[in-house]
Amino acid sequence: MKSLVTEEEISNVAKLMKIDLEDHTAHIKRVQKMLEYFDILDNANVESEEITVQETDLDKLRDDKHNPYDKNLLKFLKSYQGKYVKAPKLN
After folding, report:
1. pTM over the 0.85 mark
2. Smallest Cα–Cα separation from 3: which of 42, 43, 30?
3. So what's the pLDDT on residue 17?
4. DSSP-based three-state secondary structure for 39
5. Which backbone phi and psi does 76 adopt, to 5 degrees?
6. In the chain, what are the helix, strand and coil shares in percent, each to the nearest 5?
7. Domain of life of the organism in this record (predicted)?
8. Cα 84 to Cα 20: distance, rounded to the nearest angstrom
9. 1 with 36: CB under 8 angstroms?
10. Are 6 and 24 in contact (CB under 8 A)?
11. What is the pLDDT of residues 2-35, one digit of tens each?
């Protein structure tokens, strides 16, 4: 099957996301596998399927309001930088 993604594209996306990648090959294979899966989903014949949607009235939704965080909250976090919390690395 023709490759749907190139090393240059992976490198460019990594730069945009500010991620330092040493080996692009492994990521090319992963992205290729995801794109192949999306291709399978695109080719699935679901046009005849009925889509059910549950509608909610706007007056039943909660009010959207800004709740500023308590600055003392940061002392309970294990890892943070400035106002950002550092999440663990995902594999």
Report:
1. no
2. 30
3. 83
4. helix
5. -90, -10
6. 45, 5, 55
7. Archaea
8. 20
9. yes
10. no
11. 677 787 888 888 888 887 877 777 777 888 888 8
Strand partners, 84: 81
For residue 24, what are the contacts with CB-CB under 8 A and spacing of at least 6?
A: 7, 10, 11, 14
Indicate the pairing of strand 80-81 with strand 84-85.
antiparallel
Give, in order, the Cα–Cα distances in Å from 53 to each of 46, 50, 80, 91.
Answer: 16, 10, 40, 35
Q: Which residue has the tokens 């749907």?
A: 4
pLDDT value of position 1:
58
Residue with tokens 């059910």: 52
Q: Where are the alpha helices (DSSP H) in the chain?
A: 7-16, 24-43
